[in-house]
Amino acid sequence: MMQSVFKIQYLKAAFLSVLMPLVVVLVIFPFRELFTTTDIVMLQLLWVTWVAVRSNRRVAALTTLVSVACTDWFYVVPYFTFHIENIEYVVTFLVMLIVGLVISHLAGELNTKVRDVQAHASNSRLLYELAKKLNDLDSLEEQKQLFLTTMTAHLKVACDWQLTASKQFIYLNEQQAEFGGIAFAKALNAEQQALANTACSLLYQVQEKTLLREQSAAIKVQAELERSKNTLLRSLSHDLRTPLATIMGASSMLADDDIQLSSEVIKEQAANIYEQSKILNQHFDKVMELSKVNKLAENIKWQKLPILTLISEAKSRRQQQLQNFKLSIEAQQQSICFGDETLLEIAFANMLENAARYGDGSANMQFIETHNEYQIVLTNPFANKHETSQDEGVGLGSVICDVVAKCHQGRFELTLNEQTKQATAILIWSNSRG
Question: Which residues span the membrane (predicted)?
Answer without folding.
Answer: 12-29, 60-81, 87-107
